[in-house]
Each structure stands twice: as structure tokens, then as C-alpha cells.
Amino acid sequence: MALSGLEIFKLLPKTNCKKCGQPTCLAFAMALAQKKVGLDQCPDASEQARTSLAAAAAPPMRLITFGAGPAACKTGQETVLFRHEEKFHSPTIIALALPDDLAPEALAARAKTIQAFAFERVGQAMPIGAVAVIHRSGDAGRFAAAADFAKGLCKALILVTDSPDAAKAALAHVKDSRPLLCAATDATAAAMAALAKDAKCPLVARAATPEALAALTEKLKAAGCEDLVLWLDTPDAWAGMEGLTLERQLALKKNFRPLGYPTIAFATDGSPEDQAAAASALVCKFAGIVVVETVEPWALLAILTTQQNIYTDPQKPVQVEPKLYAVGEAGPDSPVLFTTNFSLTYYTVEGDVEASRIPAWILCVDTEGTSVLTAYSGDKLNEKTVAKAMKAANLETVVRHRKLIIPGYVAVMSGKLEEETGWEILVGPRESSVIPRYLQEVWRS
Ligand code: SF4
User: Fold this and answer.
1) What pLDDT score does 312 carry?
2) What is the mean pLDDT of the chain?
3) Ligand 1 centroid to 23 CA: how many Å?
4) Can you count the helices (H) and strands (E) in the chain?
5) 177 close to ligand 1 (CB < 6 Angstrom)
6) Which domains can be identified in the chain, with CATH numbers?
7) Which ligand 1 atom minimizes the distance to the CA of 17?
8) Phi, psi angle pair for 20, to nearest 5°
9) Nearest to 217 by CA among 254, 256, 159
10) Ligand 1 center to 237 CA (angstroms)
């Protein structure tokens, strides 16, 4: 049962010492009730308070780890329903299906494809987190062999089977890699819980309704399994989203412990387009792990792009290091353009400069990760900040000419910038996509 802020306050030292970073014990109690701080941030809390507050201090959603070493994946520990309330903590893990009924050559080809994926966007790697070995053959030995084979892919593993016998056979090969065992139902709860406990791996609870799922997690917990993941087994991804939303609300807003676990969902049906759409929606609302069957790069890129956007901390814009970057074999006569250090802006400009096939310099000005217009209107991008960046990059020693191309959207600063730097200011295009034509036609002429 969750405690109110006032109930928590009664258990605190009430010295208002501020060691926790809060102005008063009451403020700390309120923040603790909302799960925004941890009790360990108050060094003076008594043992009695720690015991009494253990439930209130526990995160509303448990953090679950599966996989081992560098392949380990974390899911859960979310504290808010909406990203703007704070941030989301554990990016949805995208898992690719490896069905055990594939012929050996097809299995090897799929594994090779999975290993070859290496996506990067705005300077960040976007990994495929896990491989879900799916038991479709009906043969426990074949499932175990597929799991053993998947172990060589060095990804976190999810063993998807309803059969305790097949799970036991697979775990005999891969339990050292701490796979996620998926899944226990009401009928198999005891057998699957015993296997998960023995292998020390987390376990998925599978049921058709949130009520049944809550009853099942209590049963698994009573059997000794603490690390659980929820699988709401709905007819399609869209019904699943409704259920996932309800689960999230109950866990975070009502502190309903039986559903205080991360979730797994499957978008393995239909065309690659269907899977990309369903998986992207599930990433938004609120799947911790999404399994897809397609290995079409464009479909995976759409899903991973959604994941990257949703899980970016809204209070920390993705930034690149503010400095001078060479695109191609830039030399002393190459053009110099400036832009801001907001990753999306920088990488868009970089891609367009690269597309021009004219080697160039990009001066990346520190605007605390904001875009050109936002930075200009917030006075983070002005003649002083650009001149400072030029000086820091020793631009005068890098190029022989004294010409600086500025974004068309801030043409208004060209006069002041010319006065500040003594350089000739060329107003570039407003849209980054016009940069190739600009460099080819204006710079070269
Ligand atoms: Fe109160 Fe503890 Fe915070 Fe000090 S550290 S203000 S005692 S809650």
C-alpha cells in the first residue's frame, strides 16, 4: 500500500538539514511519495523508517536484466506515464525472432542478417537488443538446438515457448547467458517458476487480461520468482496497446504491485509494413520489449527511430561536440559553413554537405543543443558566440579565404557578424537540403 507524503514525513528525522538536496523534510517526503527521489538520499533516515518505508521507496516498476556481459539488456524502472513529466528510463528493447522451424541454411542466413545490422542515427548507435528464439517446431530438441545456435550471436536471448520440457532442454544449453524465459501461464506456472529459479533467469508471465496477469504474477512471486515481465496476450497489437496503457497506469498511478513489472509484446504478424507500424505503436505505448519477425532494414530502421525519439531525455537535447568538423578532404580553400550543436541539425547539414561532393568545413557552434532558430531567438546564437567558436577552432589558420556561409534563417545577423569577425558573410540556404546545389552553383562560381 502506497504511503502519502504526510505519512512518510512522520517517519523522517524532521531536521530540514537539506543533505538530500530538498529544502525540507516535507518536500523530500512529497518527492518520495511521487517516486521522484529514493530513500537512500536521506542519510539520516533511521532503520525503523527504512523498514517502514521500504514499500514506498521501491520503484513502481521493477528493473529487470537479462542477457549477460556486454549483451545484457535492462527493461523497466519507469516512473512516469508521459515523457515530459520527467523522462523514460529504459529504451524499448527491439528483439528479432529466430523461429526454430527454419531449415538449417535459413537459420544460418537469418543469423547472419541479424549480426550484420548496424544502424546509426544522429551520431548514436541504434542496436538490435535481443534475439527471441521461438518454439514453433513442436520439438524440444530442435528448440534447444536453435537456442544453442542463437547463443553464438552474442545477443541477449529470449526463449519463447509454452512447453516446460522445451524450456528445460534449451536452458541446459544457454542458462549461463541468463535468457528471459517466455512464458509461464496459469497452467504452467509451477513448472516454469521452478525452471526460472534454477537457472536464475527472469520469467515472463502470460495471460489474456490484466486481472489474470495480476493473479499470475502473485502466484509466481509466491513460487519464488521476483524478476518478472508481463505479456498481455491480446488478439492484436492494437488491443495490446490498450492493455499496456492500463497496466502502466495501474502500476505507476495506483502503485499496484502485481502489475509493477516491465512488459513484452509481439509484432510478428502480417507484412513488414504491418509489423513496423504495430511495433512502433507498441514502443510508444508502453512495451518494454517488442519482438518482430521482419528483418527488412527499412522496417527496423522505422521502429528504432521511433524508439530513439521516444526515449530521448526531453530535458537534454541530443548534442554533438561543438568544434570544427571536416567533411571529406577539406583543405585551406574549402568552404566553411556554421550550424548549431543540436545533433539533428548538425547531422542533417553534414549529410547535405557530403551529398554536394565538395569537401567543406562545418563549424559547430555551442548552442546547448538547440536548433538554429531556437538558439537565435534565445540569444544563444549571435555574432559573439559564432566569433568565439571561430576563434576556438583557429579558423584563420585552417583556411586561406575569409568567407563564412551562415544559415539562411539567420541572415539577419550577417551585418553584425561581419563587423565582429571581419569575414565576408555569405547567406546560405534556409533549408539544409538546398546546400548541395548552393555549394555547387554559388560557392564554386
Ligand atoms: Fe530531512 Fe533527511 Fe532531507 Fe535532511 S536529508 S532534509 S533529514 S529528508
Assistant:
1) 87
2) 93
3) 8
4) 17, 17
5) no
6) 5-57 (1.10.15.40), 63-310 (3.20.20.20), 324-443 (3.40.50.11600)
7) 4
8) -80, -5
9) 256
10) 45
